[in-house]
Design goal:
Layout lengths: L6 E2 L12 E4 L6 E3 L4 E7 L11 E10 L13 E9 L1 E8 L2 E7 L7 E9 L2 E11 L8 E5 L19 H15 L3 E5 L8 H11 L6 E4 L20 H4 L6 H6 L6 E5 L2 E5 L5 E3 L5 E5 L2 H11 L6 E3 L22 E3 L1 H10 L4 E4 L6 E5 L2 E5 L11 E7 L5 E7 L5
Parallel strand pairs: 3-10, 11-12, 12-13, 15-18, 17-19, 18-20, 20-22
Antiparallel strand pairs: 1-14, 2-4, 4-8, 5-6, 5-9, 7-8, 9-10, 11-23, 14-15, 16-17, 21-22, 23-24
Length: 409
């Protein structure tokens, strides 16, 4: 199975200008492969690069990362590499101006591990950490971790009496525990940063480097925020003032190039969506802008013939304890556009479960034969911080359990 059958949607390509880089796989959009399979690498580099395989070098490396955690946490980017493997390049295609696809073959005797990817061409070197994993085979009962809302860069909201926290230390402690538990992969469902700036994104990326299992990321409404001066007053400002797709430039360039994507992992079919930025419907309530009509068409095409699929997005579609009728704007915090249509489609196509974050609490609701799970924030829950561990079962169902932060049990 090549690249975990990871499929992004070209129609939902990131809006950022091109810079030279590895476009895919990345630290938030990794490739998981078995020995002997093909690794496809998408690159953005200058025109005129060689299309002969001999002009390119592809290496993967295993390393040990260091982190120092204190009252003011710092992440040490230093990495000591202890194993580097040269992969044979089997083909290169220049498919669109500055865009190249480089294919390399995974050796049959590859060691199971998570690797950094390094590509060299024309004297230039490009690296993506934790971008490739080798596994001997895909499990029949995959087990994965679902995390929500790290909010890296959170500085407190004095205007509404919300104090600052050491969110980096809190997140790093959970990463340490997840590494010991060794799920097959981790899904982080948005609000990766509290607001978009290079420092916050750099801190997030350095934290993602500490995972010893592959990580898939999604966007949340806070990731759209271009500044933090207004944070704490979100309902009082119109959405265009508070958010800007340009704020996502670093995310698309360096963490995950795809707003929406799907992948298969053994029997698991996962569909990952961007539920949008803020849509303010009153002076005191904020909702997610929701799914576009194009999102819905793409979603339906990726769910047809795939019963028991799992969907991941930042905002909930429905919430426990609220008005759970299929009204378009029933619940605070839920998606607005295509909310009803999304729930009807999930029921019609026998989706197993929808996982979301955003609300910073544990919630569960069943509607139309579909399970809806809200996962707490890993750093900023109103209740205890935590995450979910999910395992598919041989009988075709799944188990989902909440794991509370190790310092809050």
């Amino acid at each position: 199975m090549d690249n975990t059958r990871l499929e992004s949607d070209p129609a939902a390509a990131s809006p950022c200008p091109d810079i030279e880089r590895i476009t895919s796989p990345t630290i938030g959009f990794p490739s998981i492969l078995t020995p002997g399979s093909k690794l496809s690498i998408d690159m953005c580099v200058e025109q005129g690069m060689p299309t002969d395989a001999s002009g390119w070098s592809v290496q993967i490396s295993r390393g040990v990362r260091r982190i120092t955690i204190g009252h003011e946490t710092t992440v040490d980017e230093g990495t000591y590499y202890y194993d580097t493997i040269q992969l044979p390049v089997s083909g290169v295609v220049n498919y669109d101006r500055f865009k190249y696809r480089v294919d390399a073959r995974i050796p049959q005797d590859s060691q199971t591990d998570l690797y950094d990817l390094r590509v060299e061409v024309d004297g230039k070197e490009f690296t993506q950490e934790n971008a490739v994993q080798f596994i001997p085979q895909f499990p029949s009962e995959p087990r994965f971790c679902v995390m929500g809302d790290p909010h890296i860069g959170f500085e407190g909201y004095p205007c509404i009496d919300v104090p600052n926290i050491d969110e980096i230390s809190i997140f790093a402690r959970s990463i340490e525990e997840v590494n010991q538990d060794r799920p097959d992969f981790v899904m982080i469902m948005g609000d990766l940063v509290d607001w978009s700036c290079p420092d916050n994104w750099n801190d997030l990326r350095n934290l993602l480097k500490l995972f010893q299992v592959p990580v898939f990321t999604l966007m949340g409404n806070h990731d759209y925020y271009w500044d933090n001066w207004w944070v704490g007053y979100p309902p009082m400002l119109p959405a265009p003032v508070r958010s800007d797709p340009v704020a996502l430039r670093y995310y698309f360039r360096h963490i995950n190039p795809s707003p929406r994507y799907c992948f298969d992992y053994g029997p698991l079919h996962a569909v990952c969506l961007d539920s949008g930025d803020d849509a303010v419907l009153s002076a005191v309530e904020a909702y997610g802008s929701g799914l576009t009509d194009d999102d819905m068409q793409w979603l339906e095409s990726n769910l047809e013939g795939r019963p028991e699929s799992f969907i991941f997005m930042h905002h909930p579609a429905t919430r426990a304890g609220c008005d759970n009728s299929l009204k378009r704007h029933a619940n605070t915090g839920c998606i607005t556009k295509n909310r009803r249509e999304f729930m009807v489609l999930c029921s019609k196509l026998d989706v197993a479960a929808v996982f979301n974050g955003h609300e910073h609490k544990v919630e569960y609701w069943a509607e139309g034969g579909v399970d809806y799970h809200t996962t707490p924030s890993i750093t900023r829950s109103g209740e205890r911080n935590g995450y979910r561990m999910v395992r598919l079962t041989a009988a075709g169902g799944y188990d989902a359990e909440v794991v509370w932060h190790p310092d809050e049990r």
